[in-house]
């Protein structure tokens, strides 16, 4: 069963097996700064962080935004999924 990701305006939240995972962001103009992510220990390795980050990337595309990958998990995601690099910015200047 696919879990639903909810946008609170500050983070994307995924509830799975009664536990919450999230990708937190700050919007700075036309850039989403993905600065924090969390997946409970017992759920790690199941692709939940990737699901959240992918959702965030799609959200950015749909809203004409760029992405700043401030969190290590987002940087790793981009190393593996290079097709999303065109969205990235590394400075908020």
From TrEMBL:
Keywords: Transferase. Residues 4-89 form the N-acetyltransferase domain. One of its GO terms (molecular function) is transferase activity. Pfam families: Acetyltransf_CG (PF14542). InterPro entries: Acyl_CoA_acyltransferase (IPR016181), Gcn5-rel_NAT (IPR045057), GNAT_YJDJ (IPR031165). This is Predicted acetyltransferase, GNAT superfamily.
